[in-house]
Amino acid sequence: MPNAVKGQLAKLGAALQSFTVAQRTIAVILVAALVLGVVALVSWLGKPTYTPLFSGIDPTDASAIVELLQTDGVPYELTAGGGTILVPENVVYDERLKAAAAGLPAASSGGGYSLLDTMGVTSSEFQQNVTYKRAIEGELANTIKAMDGVKNASVQLAIPEESVFVAEQRDPTASVFVETQAGATLDSKQVQAIVNLTSASVDGMKATDVAVTDASGTVLSAVGSGAVGGADGDASDYESKVQASVQAMLDKMVGPGNSSVVVAADLDQSSGTKVTESFSQPTSGPIALNESGTTEQYGSGANGANGTGATGVLGPDNIAVPNGTAADGTTTAGTGADGGYTNESTTKNNAVDKVTESLNVPAGEVSRQTVSVALNSAAANGVNMQSVRDLVGAAAGIDAARGDTVQVAQVDFDTSAADAAAEALKAADAASASEAMWGTIRTVGIVAAIAIAAIVGLIVFARRSRRQDREDVDLGELSPQNGAQTWDATMPLSLDDAVATSRLTLPGMGEPKTELLEVDAPTPSPEFVSAERRRAEIDAMAERDPGKTAELLRGLMDDRQPA
């Protein structure tokens, strides 16, 4: 070991020996804490980063995957109630490939059309139909589970068998069970998306043939009626939209918090198709499409057939009516003098313009709405109420012919709740700021205390090290090698050239210590040497044991005091 290292170790050992019991205990605690901190830091830095291997899997699949990881000796962690498996980042892809080779997770990969892969050629028609239906159900369930907020889904299809002996086929129906994630709910648009997705996946299924139910038993969509609560949701959306637009306008007029808007709308949920046909004459005049005429002759003479004819016809109750008189008593044109009958008629069809309009009327048309506006009288003193009413009616789309109404009034607003909330918010902000300030003070105080303790420790250690570095000089008996020289008591000693070895022993200070002294001076007088020796002894004792030196000095002072 190098001498420099030995010297430093020796100084460290001497410094530790000079510590008191309390100082040694504190030093041991600090060293132990430092070692534990280093070990914890190294352990934390050496800990691998965990990445999800699979998430949201079935407990059965999770158990099988855990057994596979234990077989491979791969560390893992389970989170989210066992539904998520975490593994080190460097092995995640290898373990996924191994799990896929083992058919895991089976619950997510075994459904859907993969069921058709295991169906043999000897399967019956019934087995084929059931397997195909299960495959469609699995695919639909996996697709619905991919939607936001959906944790799990199950689809059941009721597809009637086709038969030539049935005159009217029944429509297929579907039942969808949806389990949402914690704190998530499905809105009307998501429910409608599930209904449309399911109905479009089965031939002959209508949107009204799908029922959707959540995990709490709430019917989101019923067979035959569509989405439940859709009308209320549409009305609420419309009211919120109108209210927001009117409120934004009033906030700019009277200031935020000085107005309140309430909108009530009635929506017509009936839907259908409206067909309108209209006819008009062509602008260029009548255009004949076809024309036909007929002529009838009865009786004798020139106008009769072959000059002969019946002299009369039977009228009501078999009473003879003279020729040329109709049954209703009117005489027709073309009657001959000999009693003959002639009837001529002409039919002419003219072209006309025809317009047919077919209009699909959707549900949700506004049948009536009312808007109520309350203004704070303290902020709306100079506001024209008629102008406000007109602006609100225009912003809300009020139609008087439809029966819409607008009511605007000035009232005194109760601001006690708002003031209390403002005070509570101010108090919370003050408490938060105070807590943050005291937290900063505590942090700074702890850091300052640690820094001060470290500085004090360094100062103490430096002083003790400096004391250990000092070498006590034992004047002892000087060597008489320069006895011919004379000693000048007024000159200081020079420790540069000459070398003298002396031994100094203090009472109660342990073994004597040999020191090497280099001097270049004449031999001092015995009185001077004695005084300097006593002074050196006192200095050495004061440096090594100040407490004992103080006790000795007190004893000397007590002895010198007169009795």
Tell me about this structure.
This protein has 563 residues and is of the alpha+beta class. It has 6 domains: 3-46; 50-109, Hypothetical protein rpa1041 (Alpha-Beta Plaits); 112-161 and 170-228, GMP Synthetase, Chain A, domain 3 (2-Layer Sandwich); 236-270 and 362-416, GMP Synthetase, Chain A, domain 3; 434-468; 471-560, no CATH class. Helices cover 41% and strands 23% of the residues. The protein has 12 helices and 19 strands. It has a 5-stranded mixed β-sheet with strand order 4-5-6-7-8. Strands 1-3-2 form a 3-stranded antiparallel β-sheet, covered by helices on one side. It starts with a helix and ends with a helix. The relative contact order is 0.05.
